[in-house]
Amino acid sequence: MSEETQENTGPYLMEVFSFQHHKQYASNAEEGVIKGFTLGPVRTDCQSYAAGHHFHWIPVFRYTKEKEFAEVKFLEGQAFEVTTQGETHTWHHHDPERLKEALEKCRREDVMAIKGRPWIFIWCGDGCYAFNCSEEPITPCTD
Prior knowledge:
24% of the residues are buried. 12% of the residues lie in helices and 29% in strands. It has one domain. A hairpin with a 4-residue loop joins strand 1 and strand 2 (23-25). The protein is of the alpha+beta class. The protein contains two helices and nine strands. The strands form two sheets. The protein has a six-stranded antiparallel β-sheet, with helices on both faces.
């Protein structure tokens, strides 16, 4: 149904974001897209939605339309070097092992950043794994 006209516009696909896996599923997932790889669930010992920690579903859907290719390399600790649009930055993530695993399993061309935000999305065949990074060293995880 259209919000503007209140007329039935036919069925449409609703975007889905999994809190357990921090994965934004593709709108074509129902067409039998083959998964490229899987990751385990996100950390459950952290309840923070601050930069560098977990995502909340509202900003994922609101701000993830403009994706651009990114080259991401692990530096040390929680730090990653991210190059996009010719600019290189250091971003931090509270679960560096999970992000490193995703980078090891994916194809280079499947790593994207969100324009203007320190967010990494990694295509895996039926959607993207999402990593909410921080441009500053991150605060400790909260229970």
